[in-house]
Amino acid sequence: MANAEFQITLREGEPAGALMRYAPNGVVRGEVRLTAHEPVNCRGAYLRLMWHTEGRGDRDEAKLDEIVLATGAMPAGAHIQRAFEFRLPQMPWSFAGEYVNIIWEIVGVVDLPLAVDIVAREPFILAPRRA
Fold first, then answer.
1. Where are the alpha helices (DSSP H) in the chain?
2. Which of 4, 8, 52, 96 is deepest in the core (most CB within 10 A)?
3. What pLDDT score does 107 carry?
4. Counting Cβ atoms within 10 Å, is residue 130 exposed (0-12), middle (13-18) or buried (19+)?
């Protein structure tokens, strides 16, 4: 099993409990760090802006944007650190309901061939500021 670690830090949002809140049509900014603790035979490493539903019924999800962090294999000790920025859409807003939730997140993925990908998730809230 490949051993790599993601750290995703969000910046410039408004604290909303344990999460950060960002306004529709705004920008989510942050920093990502990816460290390979041993050689990682991968197709690439990516940072994605995504949303998905949880709850009753079928799961819906969408990938709105993607940043390529690396392509090809990563040697032991490889370290990638970079700032990122994603433009947010108008909707769908984050939602927590009785039957369905809409979850926004920044997702880091190391795409491993014929193996379970290494994935890190940093959820956030997409909603307008309450008056």
1. none
2. 4
3. 98
4. exposed
Task: Report which of 23, 31, 35, 15 is spatially closest to residue 85, judged by C-alpha positions.
Answer: 31
Question: What pTM was estimated for this model as a whole?
Answer: 0.93
The two three-digit tokens of residue 122, written as one number: 């940093």
Amino acid making up residue 81: Q
Residues 61 and 51 sit within 8 Å (Cβ to Cβ): yes
pLDDT at residue 57, rounded to an integer: 82
pLDDT of residue 5: 93
pLDDT of residue 126: 98
Cα→Cα distances 83→1, 47, 80, Å: 28, 11, 10
Structure tokens at 130: 């309450």
Q: In one letter, which amino acid is 121? A: R
Nearest partner of 13 among 131, 124, 97, 96, judged by Cα: 124
Q: Which domains does the chain have, with CATH numbers?
A: 4-126 (2.60.40.640)
* Residue of 6, 8, 74, 81 whose CA lies nearest to 38: 74
